[in-house]
């Protein structure tokens, strides 16, 4: 059967997926879109991974110098590729883990500090199950009573710092309050952003930190040349955005945009009606006058979406907004306001390159076939057959671990557990019409292009899977014994 599986995979079957493609969760025609909106960080501006090391090191030093954490933490450096986006952290159990769309912890992906927690211990910690009940799960914005979900790309250094500090405390037998530790690290990371340190690093060396500036320029100009209206809503301050956009797009970048809103305080911008818009002058100083209209070329601070809709009249599916944070950028816009949404998922490019490898393709196909064999051969109940089944189950587990490790040795793919979608994937499908690695992917499509999602078969309407092809569509086990039940 293994030979059949390999023979059924034609030469050149790899490299079928394009890392620069746009993938659709929902049918959407760009021809119907008149207005394009953008977040700034990790949407218009993509940053190099060097930034994560800077955030980690600075927050680590804040913990030592201001929060009086042990100086031995200074020996820890950022570990690129340790964590992935979409993980959950159980504050009271100090567990960082990957959870699937059905609220089950993927075994083998639970870490306390920098060390994996045995599967048996994870199951015991949750009362004999891998399942996390709904009331313990994070809320609509990823923040629950004890479980926090890390959905921001900027959260990668935070997860690594959290794991490093716990690792140090456990290694030195230091008792700690789990809630205080989580809050201290969260506050230290927040300081890096709020006090403007990150902005200063990027502004000093934009060539080093900002990627794909030319492509951002090309996307925006192309849309304007096709008479599309553009707007920007970001939580970043104006001076930072202004310098970044001048670097990527040019000194007249504001001429491309109909609206620019900075320090918007998303996601509150989408839900809280109380904050009015304030105008900034060309130097970024606040003006006092009441805002009765949003003017092209002007810069606005704060505000709220309800006033934005009232003043612009931009509603419904003629608006397409792009952002990298599924909760802060996209969720409210899709569910409450009916805008079309595009998720920017930079990790997509790397994951597709892995999916396109021969090793992944063969491993996954054989795993599917082996799973089908396991399911169908359970009809044999003799001792020898049971032993064979155990061996097959072991082989299947080894293949699953292999495919997981191709993406990330600790946590695997951000999109899948062994077979189910991750909690991150579930939110991605729920909150975005389309998703892509960067906005530059738009350059590969006509401005009137229609995206059609593939009809993914439900389990009961599935076509022939690989295991069915290889076993000759063998009959359902115990079918004869079941006849009398009907």
Automatic annotation (TrEMBL):
GO MF entries: 5'-nucleotidase activity; metal ion binding
Chain sites annotated for binding Mg(2+): 39, 324
Cofactor: Mg(2+)
Binding, GMP: 41
Cofactor-binding details, from the entry: Binds 1 Mg(2+) ion per subunit.
Keyword annotations: Hydrolase, Magnesium, Metal-binding
Name of the protein this chain belongs to: 5'-nucleotidase domain-containing protein 2
Organism in which the protein naturally occurs: Alligator mississippiensis (American alligator)
Lineage: Eukaryota, Metazoa, Chordata, Craniata, Vertebrata
């Amino acid at each position: 059967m293994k030979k059949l599986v390999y023979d059924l995979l034609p030469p050149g079957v790899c490299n079928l997926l394009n890392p620069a493609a746009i993938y659709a969760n929902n049918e959407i025609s760009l021809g119907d879109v008149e207005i394009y909106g953008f977040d700034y960080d990790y949407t218009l501006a993509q940053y190099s991974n060097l930034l994560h090391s800077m955030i980690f090191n600075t927050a680590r030093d804040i913990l030592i110098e201001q929060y009086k954490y042990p100086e031995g933490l200074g020996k820890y450096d950022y570990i690129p590729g340790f964590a992935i986006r979409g993980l959950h952290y159980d504050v009271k159990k100090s567990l960082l883990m990957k959870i699937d769309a059905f609220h089950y912890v993927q075994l083998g992906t639970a870490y306390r500090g920098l060390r994996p927690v045995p599967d048996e211990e994870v199951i015991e910690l949750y009362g004999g199950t891998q399942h996390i009940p709904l009331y313990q799960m994070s809320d609509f914005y990823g923040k629950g009573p004890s479980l926090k979900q890390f959905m921001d790309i900027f959260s990668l250094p935070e997860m690594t710092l959290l794991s490093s500090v716990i690792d140090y405390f456990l290694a030195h037998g230091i008792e700690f309050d789990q809630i205080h530790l989580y809050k201290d690290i969260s506050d230290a990371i927040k300081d890096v952003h709020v006090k403007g340190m990150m902005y200063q690093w990027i502004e000093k060396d934009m060539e080093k930190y900002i990627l794909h500036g030319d492509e951002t320029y090309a996307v925006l100009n192309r849309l304007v040349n096709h008479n599309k209206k553009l707007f920007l809503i970001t939580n970043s301050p104006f001076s930072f955005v202004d310098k970044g956009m001048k670097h990527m797009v040019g000194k007249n970048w504001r001429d491309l945009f109909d609206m620019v809103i900075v320090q918007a305080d998303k996601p509150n911008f989408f839900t809280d009606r109380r904050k009015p818009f304030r105008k900034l002058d060309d130097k970024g100083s606040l003006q006092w006058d009441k805002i009765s209209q949003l003017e092209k070329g002007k810069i606005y601070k704060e505000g709220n979406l309800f006033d934005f809709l009232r003043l612009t009249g931009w509603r419904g599916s003629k608006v397409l907004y792009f952002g990298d944070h599924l909760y802060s950028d996209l969720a409210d816009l899709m569910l409450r306001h009916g805008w079309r949404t595009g998720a920017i998922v930079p990790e997509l490019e790397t994951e597709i390159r892995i999916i396109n490898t021969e090793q992944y393709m063969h491993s996954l196909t054989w795993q599917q076939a082996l799973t089908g064999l396991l399911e169908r051969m359970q009809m044999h109940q003799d001792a020898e057959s049971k032993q064979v089944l155990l061996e097959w189950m072991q082989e299947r587990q080894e293949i699953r671990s292999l495919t997981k490790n191709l993406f990330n040795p600790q946590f695997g793919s951000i999109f899948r557990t062994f077979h189910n979608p991750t909690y991150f994937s579930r939110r991605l499908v729920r909150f975005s019409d389309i998703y892509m690695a960067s906005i530059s992917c738009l350059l590969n499509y006509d401005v009137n292009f229609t995206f059609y999602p593939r009809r993914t078969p439900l389990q009961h309407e599935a076509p022939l899977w690989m295991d069915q092809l290889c076993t000759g569509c063998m009959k359902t086990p115990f079918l004869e014994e079941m006849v009398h039940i009907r």
